[in-house]
Structures are given as C-alpha cells and as structure tokens.
Amino acid sequence: MYLINEIFYSIQGEGVNAGVPAIFLRFSGCNLKCPFCDTSHQTGNPMSLDDIMHEVSRYNASLVVLTGGEPSLFIDDAIVEALHNAGKTIAIETNGTHPLPAGIDHVTLSPKDDFCDNAQTVIEHCDELKIVYRGDNDPSRYNHIKASHRVLQPCDTGDDEQNRRITSEALDYCLSHPQWRLSLQLHKILNVR
Questions:
Q1: pLDDT band at 34 (very low <50, low <70, confident <90, very high)
Q2: In angstroms, how far is CA 156 from the centroid of its own chain?
Q3: What is the pTM of this model?
Q4: What's this protein's family per the entry (predicted)?
Q5: For residue range 68-124, what is the model confidence (pLDDT) as tens digits?
Q6: Could you say which of 6, 14, 70, 93 is catalytic?
Q7: Cβ distance 44 to 113 under 8 Å?
Q8: Active site residue 30
Q9: Phi first, then psi: what are they for 132, rounded to 5°?
C-alpha cells in the first residue's frame, strides 16, 4: 500500500519540462519542513499499486511526475516497473535526501539544505538540478552535482514585492551564470493546479 495525497492531470509547471502535460502522483508525507512549501501533503489515502495504476490509466499523458511531500520515502521498484509497463515516462521531484530506485527517467533534484536541518543530499547525479532561489543562497555550492540542466526557481514568499525582487535577482544570476536557466512556476502564472 502507498499513502497517496492525490493523483491529478495538469501541465508540468516547473523546470525543463514546463508546459508538458503530466499525471501527478503526489505522495503524502515529507522528512523536511521547508518554510516556503506550497503543497498540502500531510494527509492521504492508502492505495494499492493496482488502484494507483487504474487512476493513472484514466489520463492520456505519457509523463508521470512522482512528487510529494517527498516521494523517495515511498517509491519502490514495483511502482517504477508498473508505470514503465504501462508505457509511462517517469519523472521525480526529490529533495535528494534518500536514494532512488533504478529506472526513473528524469530526476529533478532540489536540495533543501539551505532551508532545513538534516537535509543533506545523497544524490550526486541528476537530470535537472533545481535550486529554490531567494537571493541570499549561492547556487555555486552545488557545482559538484552532475546535472544535465541547472535551473533557478525564484522562491515564492507569498509577498508580491519580495517575489519581484527575488525573481529579478534570479534573472540577473542566470544572465551572469549562463549554465543556469530561469524556471518560473508556470502553473501559478496560469492559475492551474
């Protein structure tokens, strides 16, 4: 059984896959308490793998995004195999504090050790390194992580004026460090889930 917060269909709102239709499989629970977390993931429903796959099959998209909470606390080889057998491409959004099962097609690593205690990453290679940027944290401290893509995502503080300042600083950082690209939260701009 897996504790699932929700399964829904939308577009990927962040990172290099922004705009791609995706099925979101949100697990309940996280090992961290990030001050900017914008997702309610504390409660969930126990679901069998068959129940999850039945729900996933309702949607036409080929991309499934494993998210949370922190999905690395819950996923296993069985769910990876079932999704692949259903013809799905698997992406995961993880804080990197736990190892991942083999076979995930796209790993987005978003380290949170700038914001939380006991958040040291154990993953040193990913497809996408996403840093939540608030203007006072230094993305270069993650230069040791091998990543195909590096993205800076301005931290959403809930304060419009502060958000504008952080976004401007993130843009300036990307222009000064072109190995980084700016990632805006497209789903918030479009007001979709």
A1: low
A2: 15
A3: 0.91
A4: Belongs to the radical SAM superfamily. 7-carboxy-7-deazaguanine synthase family.
A5: 889 999 999 999 999 999 999 999 999 999 999 999 999 999 998 877 788 789 899
A6: 93
A7: no
A8: yes
A9: -75, 120
37 catalytically annotated? yes
- Can you say which residues are annotated as belonging to the binding site for [4Fe-4S] cluster? 30, 34, 37
Which pLDDT score, from 0 to 100, does residue 112 have? Answer: 84
Whether 34 sits among the annotated catalytic residues: the reply is: yes
Q: How many domains does one find in the chain?
A: 1
24 is catalytic: yes
Residue 143: domain span: 2-189
Residue 181 sits in a domain of what CATH number?
3.20.20.70
Token pair for residue 164? 């504008």
How far, CA to CA in Å, does 189 sit from each of 96, 156, 164, 183, 185? 27, 12, 13, 12, 7
Which one from 14, 24, 97, 167 is the annotated catalytic residue?
Answer: 24
The one catalytic residue among 51, 105, 113, 187: 187
Residue 117, pLDDT score: 80
